[in-house]
Amino acid sequence: MASLHFTQNLARHTECPSAALPADTVAELLARYFESWPAVRGYVLDDQGEVRHHVKVLVDGRNIKDRRKLTDRIKSNSEVYVFQALSGG
Amino acid sequence: MARQLLVGTRKGVFVLGRRGRDWRIERAELLGDPVTMVLGERDGTLHAAQDLGHFGVKMKRSRDGGATWEERPVPAYPPKPDDVVDVDPMRNTPIPWNVMKVWSLESSQRDGELWCGTIPGGLFHSRDGGDSWQLVETLWKHPDRKFWVGGGADYPGIHSICVDPRSPDVVRLGVSCGGLWLTTDGGKSWDCKGQGLRADYAPPDQAYERRGQDAHRVVQCATAPDHVWIQHHNGIFRSTDGGLTCTEIRSAQPSVFGFPVVVDPHDPRTAWFVPGKKDQWRYPVDGALAVSRTRDGGESFEVLREGLPQQHAYDVVYRHGLDIDADGATLAFGSTTGNLFVSESAGDRWQNVSNYLPPIYCVRFVN
Fold first, then answer.
1. pLDDT of B294-351, one tens digit each?
2. For chain B, which residues make up each domain, given as ranges?
3. Which of A62, A82, B193, B338 has the fewest Cβ atoms within 10 angstroms?
4. Which of B52, B54, B97 sits opposite A48 (nearest CB)?
5. Which domains occur in chain A, in start order?
6. pLDDT tens, B38-54?
7. What is the mean pLDDT of residues A47-57?
8. Res A87: pLDDT
9. Which is it for strands A79-84 and A2-6: parallel, antiparallel or unpaired?
């Protein structure tokens, strides 16, 4: 199962514990996570379901390429991190 | 007199109460994050809209006077269809269908009814006190919205919502830059009004284009709501017919430029402004902070300075940074420099409450 972790700066606003979930894409992983932690969704994704402008998502250390539909594939042992982008905000 | 004064700032919301003869900060809440708008309802419920930057806009509500805050749903735009073209005509850039800022928040005389104005231009409606929000599609899909442009912000925004006290179905909006809008059927239909508003920053043939006017702030008199005052980008305007037609007032001193305006709830001819020098020089004239007041519908103005710094003051007061209590005598304003002033003499004398607050976005009395 892939592991999902969030920046501690987000934990200041809403509970967002790390989790291990089965998924083939980032979209699937986040969707499964939001089933248990629905309040986190609006902090990570915007109204259109895209990654927020100043949030970045990394899979095994690399920024995802599809910030719009989150189709980037993940492996069963992938580590996925949601961080603040150092781009403003 | 008001029970509380809410101050939304760059670093949180401050709750003030009157103790003895003074207004004092009693709570500092939601610290660390910008609070772009606050609202206190008749039943004491408080609302605060946050802009968390990286993590977007959030809505908080307090039912215990500001001691604790709960997260509530945020207005959200619907999925943007791929075939819809929606661009800001000023720069021909796509308008994001995302709530970028909550810029106005008002309740009505109907229990639970709230209106919320946002950047990039969507108006949202709630019938359950903010537990859910619906985009007002009639305005969002109005063909004239394509004339709206960003002013100080990159995208258009609704900064003023005036619910008519005679009927909650009558609502007036101020849009920067999109003029003055009116619904008389609770939002089923909208029309752009404001004939007579003049934009001297536009080419001459477009100066009176109603749909592009930069009304910085629009307020109505609580007891005579057909009397509407507008602090516009290039001057002060007044309407006595509910915003259908507007008359420019050119005699205000020390200048006609500014952002906020409030009107006496009991006297529609009395209004207050906090002028800046000019749009190109956004600080008080001569570095001397002043409030201007008219008591005769704009025929003449007094410049009120007692208690305000008169040397090297470079405060700007944003459009929501000035408020008046329902008593018509108590006013408060806060500045980008973090200075907060209260007057209980209709502006004749001002008391400095703090010089050390973060930049102030909005001040509102709670009755």
1. 999 999 999 999 999 999 999 999 999 999 999 999 999 999 999 999 999 999 999 9
2. 84-333+341-351
3. A62
4. B97
5. 2-84 (3.10.20.30)
6. 999 999 999 999 999 99
7. 97
8. 58
9. parallel
Measure in Å the smallest separation between the Cα of B87 and chain A Cα atoms: 16
pLDDT in tens, B215-231: 999 999 999 999 999 99
| B27 contacts B45 by C-beta, under 8 angstroms | no
B-chain residues near A10 (CB < 8 A): 55
Residue in B55, B76, B98 closest to A43 by CB: B55
Q: Compare CB distances from A48 to B54, B55, B98 and report the shortest one's residue.
A: B98
CATH architecture of B84-333+341-351: 7 Propeller (2.130)
Chain B residues near residue A9 by CB distance under 8 angstroms:
54
**pTM of structure:** 0.96
**Inter-chain contact B79–A42, Cβ cutoff 8 Å?**
no
Report CB contact under 8 Å: B55, A88: no
